[in-house]
Design goal:
mainly alpha; Butyryl-CoA Dehydrogenase, subunit A, domain 3; 3 domains; about 0% strand
């Protein structure tokens, strides 16, 4: 019996040793005894702290605030208690671990350790160094207690949450009044094609605030760097723009490359309407009737629209033919090439070179006309088959009727 009891005690000891360090720290954390029942910003629950990545890795309240959370004298200055961390001291405090490469390697070797150095180069960091304590520091973006990894979908810095996190300051007119900065960025981004790709379609590669402005080294792109920021994703468009007359014209006028035509935060899905001289066109912002640019814009817009209509016409007749049982798969494959060529022409227009744009449009138009003719021929074949089938059915019906009459006549004679 005593052996059984000893065995149970041994298992119990092993179970206690196997408890996660964070859980044991939580059981011994006297800080939560008070803060768990406090009000407002002082309230910190065990459930909240259990979600914190630092707590999960074995750190405790004392890791940041000092003191001894295992003792009822946790706030004793003799035990290193620091208490409240001033806003302007937060970056240095976080960096005491996160800028220590050898220390961070013990938790996650892939984590960068240059966040503080980057932060000091940012607008936020520079203003903080100048004495502005209203700017964002680490906890404003990542949270204070209950900090989750950036890969956690519930983290305020997870890609789909970044814009909303930034908007907590940048969409607050009263808060931003002292900086003379617009506060419509979040509203504009929420209506953009980028937001649609990220938040609606779930494409995590789509840009958000930090994609263009940076995260720890956040800075607004200058006129000269806008094109470089956009070209991170839109490589071909940037290369074509570099060969265009607009490149030099924009530089001499002090216009930022891409955003002059596409805007910055409120970027709408590109359409042929942008190129041309009608309502919604951006070309008329600089070009007037009579100059070469105005004429080129009108011409290219006309060709793009007419080619799109030709492709739609081909697709319509091929769809009807397929629905009626005709073999048009080859023509449908060729029509895909026409669509691709039209898409390429829409991209090539960034070069502002009529010859390059016309080259793709002509191929798209030729293919669409060819596939339309294939659809016409398929419909003719369908009509011919239907006619032949109709004649055959009438002939068979006539033969059946004649045979019936013949049999009826024989029976009458009998």
């Amino acid at each position: 019996m005593s052996d059984l009891r000893s065995l149970r005690l041994s298992f119990l000891a092993l179970a206690l040793l196997a408890l996660p360090l964070s859980l044991r720290a939580q059981q011994q954390n006297t800080c939560l005894d008070c803060h768990g029942s406090a009000d407002g910003n002082l309230k910190i629950t065990s459930e909240q702290i259990a979600q914190d990545i630092h707590f999960q890795k074995g750190l405790t309240c004392a890791s940041c605030h000092g003191g001894d959370p295992t003792s009822m004298e946790a706030m004793d200055p003799k035990k290193g208690f620091k208490g409240h961390i001033s806003h302007n001291k937060v970056p240095e405090l976080c960096a005491s671990c996160h800028a220590n490469g050898s220390y961070m390697r013990g938790f996650n070797p892939s984590l960068r350790t240059d966040q503080l150095a980057q932060y000091k180069t940012s607008v936020h960091g520079k203003k903080l160094a100048a004495g502005d304590t209203h700017v964002a520091v680490c906890i404003d973006c990542h949270g204070v207690h209950g900090i989750r990894p950036a890969s956690d979908t519930r983290s305020p810095v997870y890609p789909t949450n970044v814009a909303k996190t930034c908007s907590r300051c940048h969409a607050d007119r009263e808060y931003m009044k002292a900086y003379d900065i617009k506060t419509d960025q979040f509203a504009g981004y929420s209506a953009s094609v980028h937001h649609d790709a990220l938040a609606v379609r779930g494409d995590l590669s789509a840009p958000t605030c930090t994609t263009c402005h940076g995260n720890h080294g956040a800075a607004p792109p200058g006129v000269a760097s806008v094109e470089n920021v956009c070209s991170t994703c839109h490589v071909l468009q940037a290369q074509l723009f570099d060969t265009s007359k607009h490149k030099a014209a924009f530089q001499s006028a002090g216009f930022p490359g891409c955003v002059t035509c596409h805007s910055n935060h409120r970027i709408s899905k590109p359409s042929d309407t942008l190129l041309g001289t009608g309502p919604g066109a951006v070309c008329v912002n600089c070009h007037v009737q009579g100059d070469a640019g105005f004429a080129l814009a009108a011409s290219v817009h006309k060709e793009l629209v007419s080619t799109q209509a030709a492709i739609a016409r081909s697709n319509e007749i091929l769809t009807r033919a397929e629905r009626d049982g005709m073999e048009v798969s080859q023509a449908q494959l060729e029509l895909i090439d026409a669509r691709d060529r039209l898409t390429k022409a829409r991209v090539t227009q960034h070069s502002s070179q009529a010859a390059k744009i016309d080259e793709d449009i002509k191929v798209a138009r030729t293919v669409s006309d060819k596939t339309y003719e294939a659809g016409v021929q398929a419909m003719k074949e369908r009509n011919y088959r239907r006619l032949g089938l109709g004649i055959s059915l009438i002939t068979i019906a006539a033969m059946v009727l004649g045979l019936r009459l013949f049999i009826t006549d024989l029976e009458r004679k009998k």
